[in-house]
Amino acid sequence: MTAFSVLTRTVTIAAGISLAAIAGSQAADLNAIKEAGKITALTTANDRPNAYMDESGKPTGFEIDVCNYFADKLGVDLDLGVIAWEGILPSLTAGRADIICSAVNITKARTETFDFSVPYSRTNIVAVVPIDSDVTGPTDLEGRVVGGVTGADGEDIIREIGGFKEIRVYAGLTEVMTDLIAGRLDVVITGDIQAGAFIKQRPEAGKIVGKPYKTNFVGTPMAAGSGELQAALNEAIKSAREDGTLDALAEKYFGLADFTSTLPPIGEPATFN
Questions:
Q1: For a surface tag, which of 88, 114, 136, 177 has the fewest beta carbons within 10 Å of its beta carbon?
Q2: What are the residue ranges of helices labelled H in the chain?
Q3: What is the spatial distance between Cα 233 and Cα 230, in angstroms, rounded to a whole number?
């Protein structure tokens, strides 16, 4: 078995579904996963360089390689589906997937609903602005039209900071950066990794200004009660840090050296700031 044996499928979830609307939580069963010979996962494939579609239309990126590593360590194949962000976490609760491969931030609220692995990645939250902008950083939003991707790297942070004139929420980074380039936004709040990858491809798109607002740690979520799978993934993450896999993948996709030095010590859970 290779670490890159992926069956890709498209998943459709009814619009408007919420975590509260789904009764109960179907925990992932590690023994059942091994008996089936596959672990079922979901990604948005709309978050370069974490997860995106390659030229052949298949998901690729840092997150996809990490999940392939997990599958390889478990001795199973990765059955990977593509879905919009809005349906990802509800799909876990409904038992439609065992894990998520889409750079999910570990937040206090989410840990009350889901089990998470220890962190294997992180995102610094930054402000991206037009080249000629006078915006000084992520907290300089007073009177600005601000855009961000739905979730903890964008919309949630913008609302936390406050002071903006208007907030516009997008499905993916490409969409929000397109509006920044078009002059429809004054500021984009997003992760440094995603912003850096976009600006590298299109230097005219804008610039990152100021210091990061905060750091979000990334882990693999699974339905509550998936203790055995959680322990197995934690062990795989420990291995990936010790054997250099995570640093190699970060160098490949993010262009960052010694990436794991920015994470909590091996085996320790995420902290919230």
A1: 136
A2: 30-36, 62-74, 85-93, 108-111, 155-161, 173-181, 192-201, 227-242, 245-254
A3: 5
CA distances from 166 to 178, 193, 206 (A): 17, 25, 20
Compute how many other C-beta atoms are within 10 angstroms of the C-beta atom of residue 236. 21
Domain at 123-215, CATH from 3.90.180.10, 3.40.190.10, 3.40.605.10, 3.30.750.210? 3.40.190.10
Tokens of 17: 């579904």
Q: Do domains 6-120+219-262 and 123-215 have the same CATH topology?
A: yes
What is the length of the chain?
Answer: 273
- 124 backbone dihedrals φ, ψ, rounded to 5°: -90, 130
Q: Which amino acid is at 151?
A: G
Q: Does domain 6-120+219-262 have CATH number 3.40.50.620?
A: no
